[in-house]
Amino acid sequence: MLRFHNTLSNQLEDFHPLNGNEVKMYICGPTVWNFAHIGNFRSFTFGDILARYLRYKGYRVTHVMNLTDVDDRIINESAKKNISIDEMTAPFITAFWEDMDAIGNLRPDIAPRATEHVAEMIEIIQTLLDNGKAYESDGSIYFRITAFPEYGKLSKIKFEGNKVGGSERIDTDKYEKEDARDFALWKLVDKSDPAGWDAPFGYGRPGWHIECSAMSMKYLGETFDIHAGGIDLQFPHHENEIAQSEGATGKLFAKYWLHGEFLKIDNEKMSKSLGNEFTLRDIIGRGFKPLAIRYLLFSVPYDKQLNFTFENLKGAESTIDRLQDFKKRLQEAHLTDGINTDLQEKVRGFLNDFEEAMDDNLNTSVALASLHNLVREVNTALAHETVLTEDRSEILHIIDKYDSVFGIFGEAKEEILDAEIEKLIEERQEARRNRNFGRSDEIRDLLAEKGIILEDTKDGVRWKRK
């Protein structure tokens, strides 16, 4: 039975979708005012692993991840550059999808943009005004927390007496840094402001929190199965989503809430002031492989803090290389006809270990250990020549099952060497046949300088790039 730690109940719960075999899940996506940083990608990769494993289990998944393309930062930056919001966000949206592809995250089924769903936000706000859970103040619309007694049920924060100056209201998207109770649903802006929309309650723009409520309910319904995101969003963003959504519908908003823990850099909180807020592009620019970054990001379970270091990333890169080399070696090995039922049984046992680990709140570290156990067992069998022809297809099938969730083996691509390198490899083989080992070693060193690593195996010479 698949189990998740549900932030809402603060308990490990068996997973039972609301509607048979169908799973509807929403994960908070990026604010596209800049390139996404590595902490963002830990959350997005967690969401990808979650969606992949649900599909692995046979569920029909609808995965929605929003793009926040209007907020204070976007408006301020577009004003500075004297360009429209769309012109400001377009290159960062393109860059985000390129980064998602590079790191191996599958694209969500639906990726709504906030600016395209303002009508749905206005409708929810009007409902909240009509039922008394929202009110107007100085032209802006606020959610009345006292009208929602369950406020705080997700974050478990007590809010008694948590007001500023009695009736004072703080109108800011960053109110989590203020001691405020009520939060903005709609912000009054001047009619001359291009970052505004007409609404029955005045010209303005939506607050951040109402955006996710509108987009998630439009595509997943008033109640859906899973809402996920980083732990930094638990309060106030997700708490406010619950209040405004349930305040409008009177129904449960999301059944299961999953939150990914923080990523630290060298045991320090990631921040611009410390100079350690790396984007994915920064790290790839240092020469690291995107799949190594992916491996490191999910090597620690999503609900545990991850300490990101470049030393750990080097280790992840070596691990990825070993795993990919293992698969290639298995594919190319010359095997004896037959079947080794004992080996196949062991390999299937490792897959069972993987499933048990993933069923336990997506315990990716234990699941990865089962993969490494499989590789160790098969490598030993290859060395003893006890992997037979019928075993190979079964082992590769099981590796593909692992990779349908992990996405770390990469697609097999036929690499092409240039004529000079091909000639050198051929010359080295001839030197070895003539027992001219001095020349053979000389060519090996020369190829190494060109970034080509040779491996002499019983099946012949194999090569790979550094």
Description:
- Helix 13 packs antiparallel against helix 14.
- The protein starts with a strand and ends with a strand.
- The chain is of the alpha/beta class.
- It has 3 domains: 258 residues, Rossmann fold (3-Layer(aba) Sandwich); 135 residues, Isoleucyl-tRNA Synthetase, Domain 1, CATH 1.10.730.10; 47 residues.
- The longest helix has 23 residues.
- Helix 6 links the parallel strand 9 and strand 10.
- 46% of the residues lie in helices and 15% in strands.
- It contains 14 helices and 15 strands.
- The radius of gyration is 27 Å and the shape is elongated.
- A 4-stranded parallel beta sheet has the order 4-3-9-10, sandwiched between helices. A 4-stranded antiparallel beta sheet has the order 5-6-7-8.
